[in-house]
Write a structure and sequence with these properties.
Blueprint lengths: L1 H25 L3 H17 L4 H40 L3 H24 L5 H32 L1
Helix pairs in contact: 1-3, 1-4, 2-3, 3-4, 4-5
Length: 155
């Protein structure tokens, strides 16, 4: 049962990595702005600031980075589905694996959004996530209750 939990947590985390990679890959100018910031910081430390060099380097380097992020989307999704399938196999119920994966995905997405994109989540966002998770847990509880009723009917 513990291995199913770990697989479900990992599946949720890799799902969050896949969605963050998709945002980096398809997002307009985020990688270019990140490159500009990195080059400016590096130039300031080396005392070799050159605006022409900054724009020349970052005009093309974001394209291969976007392609790498696109490949990361597909590889992260493949790993996520592998872990989710293992979580389903090792968990006592599919609802438990689904709830755990979903919760892990929500929390990992919030963490990655804050770390990578500097997003901050308002109280309303956390209330919405909490209600969604509560609904998933109620769904999980009702599926277990339904199994118990079916077992009692068979007796």
């Amino acid at each position: 049962m513990l291995t199913g939990l770990m697989y479900a947590l990992l599946a949720g985390m890799f799902g969050a990595v896949a969605s963050s990679s998709a945002k980096l890959s398809l997002g307009g100018s985020y990688l270019k702005e990140l490159c500009d910031t990195a080059v400016r910081r590096w130039s300031a430390q080396e005392n070799t600031f050159s605006p022409a060099l900054d724009t020349a380097a970052c005009e093309w380097v974001h394209i291969p980075l976007r392609l790498v992020c696109g490949l990361l989307v597909f590889s992260s999704n493949a790993v996520m589905w592998t872990f989710f399938a293992k979580a389903l196999r090792h968990s006592s119920s599919s609802a438990r694996a689904t709830v755990t994966t979903t919760a892990s995905n929500f929390i990992s997405s919030a963490f990655l959004g804050q770390m990578i994109f500097g997003e901050s989540h308002a109280l309303l966002w956390w209330v919405g996530i909490s209600l969604t998770l509560l609904g998933l847990f109620i769904l999980h509880g009702s599926s277990l209750h339904g199994k118990q009723i079916d077992v009692k009917k068979e007796d």
